[in-house]
Write a structure and sequence with these properties.
InterPro entries: Cyt-d_ubiquinol_oxidase_su_1 (IPR002585). The protein has 493 residues and is mainly α. The chain has 16 helices and eight strands. Helix 2 crosses helix 14 (365-392), helix 5 packs antiparallel against helix 6 (132-139) and helix 11 (258-264) packs across helix 13 (324-358). It is globular.
Amino acid sequence: MPTSLHLLADAPAQLLPARELMAFTLASHIILVPLGVAFPLITLVMHYRGLRRKDATALLLARRWSAVMAVQFALGIVTGTVLSFEFGLLWPGMMGRWGDVFGVGFGVEAWAFFLEAVLIAIYLYGWRRLKPRTHFLLGLPLPFAALLGAFGILAANSWMNTPQGFSLDSGGNPVDVNVWKAIFTPMFGPQYWHFVVGMILTAGFVVAGVYATGWLRGRRDRYHRLGFAVPFTIAAVAAPVQFVLGDSIARSVFHKQPVKFAALEIVWKTDTRVPEYLFGRLQEDGTVKGGIKIPLLDSFLAGFSPNTEVVGLTSVPADQRPTATQATIAHWAFDIMVLIGSVLVLLALWYGLVWLRHRRLPASKWFYGSAACAGVGSVVAVECGWIATEVGRQPWIVYENMRVADAVTSTRSTSLWIMFGVVAAVYVFLFGSFLVVLLKMRTRWRLADEQQATAAGTHTPEADIPYGPRASVPAGDVPAADPGAGRSGGEGP
């Protein structure tokens, strides 16, 4: 029997449904994370532009984006809370033994969520009710609250990858906990900045993609140009920075988690002059099937020399490393992430060259088609990054200290599969409702714009300013509950 099948046969029956449930909820939640972390920053940049240049269109976009931000945050609270409960319900072995060591990260995240909820409420309330400068200043802490939440969750995850800040007693339980060392682990810095810049990049491309789609549909007004240009510029600046940070974190994994690096690069035996495989599948006997082999490249990328020694999977026993299938999954996720990141850098360079040469936005339909796809592509890259991080660490839930199988709940597998089905159905409903709300907001905003344009006798309905008097719209034409009613623009959000 192959080694991987031996390992699966020894695993508890409840391990598979527990992992599948956790993977599903995490993959669902992470779709919202870029907007939660970086959308406040993008909104405030647009807000600042509107105030600085007295630009009614920029202020309008900022106000509408703040409404989307609030709806997204509400959904993120739900999915994030589910994840928090799952840590205790699905992995009581880990939380029971190690919670006192790394649990402070979850505490920081909870406080950050609470603070961000208060700040978003104040920011939404402030439109038309506060002085422009006061309102903007009250919104400034929003990005920092979002970064604090990211700090908490990345502190916990980086500790799971490189645990420290404790000693073990004779029973194997952690004692003498040093909180600072537990937070600032060797992988914290590389993981945190790679994550934060990735969220900024992803949120920028996602928001810009909405307006790129509008451009492709013929909406070429200033509203759509500005709605595209600001978030895309932020993402374009972040893209090459992220590429450098990605290389840095890969090298940190090479030094701090050599077996995970071996899984990401499907390296079987420790050696020098190791080739790089683009995709390909690792077999049980250590051979690689398919893919594109580039001689010497893996050693060179790891240590800038073809003579760099790369640790292989066989450097540890089979029960202390990912299986061939897990290594292949991590490897493909890693390669897809790098491929998408490289394409996004090229798209950012295209945008930058056109701007430097002509001082205008690109006019090519190919560019806007690519920009529309960039939002989806960047979300896929984020998903792949987490897959590579979590699957590459197997079989450890706490690297080299606790296996996943030892942390899993004792709940029957049948109950876990039922729970999985219920959670999946609820999430489909939640995300479907989220999409419906966004589409209704877009429709209401567009109707309000058309009504204002008709009333003003112009085709550029951009006269109503969020801090000025409300535009006169016939009663009953716009629903009173519409957060964008009486303001101008085009296709939202």
